[in-house]
């Protein structure tokens, strides 16, 4: 079992005690010549007004610094977003390659116009697709009818009393 600090003091030799006392007096003399102002020094006595980097910053200053860094990142992200948007817009693409800078309002206005154009173009393409589908259905019906006519003509002629011309007109009227 180890002795406590006060018990170790009693055990030490008188010569060691004297050396410790002298060292403490020297330390006291060197620190007493310096004036330590708690408002301008940190816990180690280092001057806080120095331009040196501080290990311990004021919490409010740390908060400000963190906020400034976050705000700068946000502004950079917005700037990059506008630059990317400018390169995506066909009306601004050529001018951005030439190094021409447009205001954010112009970039947003052109983006809205381009989105409206794309929306209208998509609507027209859907209408055209619907029209093509209707045409395909009509052509499939015509194909089916022509196949029926071809089967009738390939079969031996029966005396039905209807001429080929009349049959064709009947098919044509059914499609028209």
From TrEMBL:
Pfam families reported in the protein's UniProt record: HLH (PF00010)
Keyword Translocase: no
Signal peptide: none
Region described as Disordered: spans on this chain: 15-75
PROSITE patterns cross-referenced by the UniProt entry: BHLH
Molecular function GO terms recorded: DNA-binding transcription factor activity, RNA polymerase II-specific; protein dimerization activity; RNA polymerase II cis-regulatory region sequence-specific DNA binding
Main subcellular location of this protein, as a coarse class: nucleus
Domain of life: Eukaryota
SMART domains: HLH
GO terms (BP aspect): regulation of transcription by RNA polymerase II
Locations listed in the record: Nucleus
Biased composition (Acidic residues): 48-58
Keywords, alphabetical: Coiled coil, DNA-binding, Nucleus, Transcription, Transcription regulation
Keyword Cytoplasm carried by entry: no
Comp. bias regions, Polar residues: 23-35
Coiled-coil regions, chain positions: 115-149
Gene Ontology cellular-component terms listed: nucleus
Ranges of residues in domain BHLH: 62-118
Protein name: BHLH domain-containing protein
Lineage, highest ranks first: Eukaryota, Metazoa, Placozoa, Uniplacotomia, Trichoplacea
């Amino acid at each position: 079992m180890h002795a406590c600090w006060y018990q170790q003091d009693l055990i030490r030799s008188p010569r060691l005690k004297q050396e410790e006392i002298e060292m403490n007096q020297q330390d006291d003399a060197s620190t007493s010549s310096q004036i330590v102002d708690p408002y301008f020094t940190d816990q180690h006595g280092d001057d806080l007004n120095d331009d040196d980097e501080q290990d311990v910053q004021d919490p409010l200053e740390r908060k400000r610094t963190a906020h400034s860094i976050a705000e700068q990142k946000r502004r950079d992200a917005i700037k990059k977003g506008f630059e990317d948007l400018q390169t995506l817009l066909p009306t601004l693409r050529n001018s951005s390659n030439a190094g021409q800078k447009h205001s954010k309002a112009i970039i947003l206005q052109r983006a809205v116009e381009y989105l409206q154009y794309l929306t209208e173009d998509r609507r027209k393409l859907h209408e055209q697709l619907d029209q093509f589908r209707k045409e395909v259905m009509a052509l499939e019906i015509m194909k089916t009818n022509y196949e029926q006519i071809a089967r009738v003509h390939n079969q031996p002629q029966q005396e039905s009393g209807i001429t080929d011309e009349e049959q064709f007109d009947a098919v044509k009227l059914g499609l028209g």
